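Propose amino acids for all 239 sites.
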């Protein structure tokens, strides 16, 4: 029997949960590995983190995008709901499993490095305040804008482009590019260098929502009514 259009298939929810889980693991584990196990300088660890997230996110999008759309991010789901690409019930369930997947990913990362971390979950007291907040606005803005434009263009390279964009923004934003409420909440529960204290995390989430809404407004007023060619349809003008 075919699934109802409004029915949320279990495979979609599992895809969103697994994608969110592995995304958090990719964001957390390399920093523990490089700073606690390998005793690497923070700059080297951050670069390794950017590479790991870029690679893993690219793979996760390619694996799951034909199942759930590969959101892994509540603000992406929020924008897709606003665009009427998904319904309210699906959006609510997606956000729920995204947050659950993120927490599970944090637990798994802590268990893998339990000798170094010493806890399964712990409330972070790592302060991230002041100028770093603006980094979350612009990091989330470019992420959501890229997704909207790539989806509109029906790009076949969305996984590669988003992976590269996120990896690059990790090392070029003052906040190191959280740009994702479920990742932010998960990182409230680690006392490693990756953590963020809850009060700062809540402000990060507000900044992420602002960035996503600004991206959506620019998209609607500037790009939505115009045709955007798929990269394969653009004439090659290189010499």
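Proposal:
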């Amino acid at each position: 029997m075919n699934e109802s259009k409004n029915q949320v298939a279990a495979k979609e929810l599992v895809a969103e949960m697994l994608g969110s889980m592995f995304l958090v693991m990719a964001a957390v584990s390399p920093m523990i590995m490089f700073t606690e196990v390998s005793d690497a300088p923070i700059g080297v660890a951050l670069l390794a983190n950017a590479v790991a997230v870029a690679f893993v996110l690219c793979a996760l999008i390619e694996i799951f995008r034909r199942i759930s759309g590969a959101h892994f991010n509540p603000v992406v789901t929020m924008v897709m709901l606003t665009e009427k690409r998904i319904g309210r019930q699906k959006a609510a369930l997606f956000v729920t499993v995204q947050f659950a997947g993120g927490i599970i990913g944090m637990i798994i990362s802590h268990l893998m490095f339990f000798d170094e971390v010493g806890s399964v979950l712990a409330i972070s007291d790592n302060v991230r305040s002041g100028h770093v907040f603006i980094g979350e606005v612009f990091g989330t803005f470019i992420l959501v804008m890229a997704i909207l434009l790539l989806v509109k263009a029906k790009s076949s390279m969305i996984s590669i482009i988003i992976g590269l964009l996120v990896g690059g923004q990790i090392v070029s934003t003052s906040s190191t590019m959280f740009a994702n409420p479920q990742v932010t909440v998960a990182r409230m529960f680690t006392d490693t260098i990756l953590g963020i204290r809850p009060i700062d995390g809540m402000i990060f989430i507000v900044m992420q929502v602002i960035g996503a809404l600004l991206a959506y407004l620019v998209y609607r007023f500037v790009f939505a009514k115009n045709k955007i060619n798929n990269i394969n349809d653009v004439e090659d003008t290189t010499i």
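Residues 10-37 form the longest helix (28 residues). The chain has a mean pLDDT of 92.
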